[in-house]
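Hey,
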Amino acid sequence: MICDFEPYTGKLQPADDVPDLEVSSNLVLRLAKIISADKHYLLYFDNWPTTLPLVCHLAKSKIFCLGTVRSNRLPGCDFPSDKDMKKNGKGTHMEKESA
């Protein structure tokens, strides 16, 4: 269910009282301000805003999220290339867990 949206029209400033996490994450944080903490909401978004700093910031606010992450947005975490993943067929996936 879509609760709120904001079309991208250019550079976005960070929301008040939150860190500047770059344009796509700033938009998510601004829209997420209406979500009450401790209510067990799960926020879904696509790969454009999904970054580790955004996921961590939302988790500290007790807002949990799910999104596809681009491999180039996970520094220090090596994934097989898209070409190598395609060789393994449809539905191939890779999971990583931090210690």
